[in-house]
Amino acid sequence: MFKISKLTDYATGVLSHMAHKPEAVYTARDITEKTHVNLPTVMKLLKLLNKSGLLDSHRGASGGYSLAHKPNEIRLINVIEAIEGDVGLTECSVKDSHCSLEPVCNTRHNWQTISNLLYDALSQITLAQMAQPLS
């Protein structure tokens, strides 16, 4: 089963919350109160998302984190890669593959094609879309 981690799911929720007021600066405690994701997890996510360039950090008394880009410019694939790393369904579908069977595998090309389709689909979905409820 293809499945994203809980951490990626939480990251999407945190960023979706922030997308409702993209110009605001949020503290980890603010985010915890609104998303119900525990504080240590939120702090870890904020550091990872900042390191990946999706968030900006602000120091000082009114410090915290804000979106580094507009919600319609952040793609779901960016969020997933910030937490998970390279996206691929199989070992040979990622950039730095370490599969010893790669030279003789007869399904490698098909898995890469499928992974590329998944990557393209995740690249089409924006944070702005994720932040909106389905109607």
* Class computed from helices, strands and strand pairing: mainly alpha
Q: Indicate the percent of residues in helices.
A: 40-55%
Rg, rounded, reads: 17 Å
Q: The biggest beta sheet, please?
A: 2 strands, antiparallel
Strand content: 5-15%
Write out the strand line-up for the largest beta sheet, numbering strands in chain order: 1-2
Listing every helix as H and every strand as E from the N terminus to the C terminus, the arrangement reads HHHEEHHH
Mean pLDDT level:
92
- Envelope shape: elongated
Structure report:
With 135 residues, this protein is mostly helical. It has six helices and two strands, in the order H-H-H-E-E-H-H-H. The chain has a two-stranded antiparallel ribbon. A hairpin with a 5-residue loop joins strand 1 (55-58) and strand 2. Helix 1 (6-19) crosses helix 4. The mean pLDDT is 92.
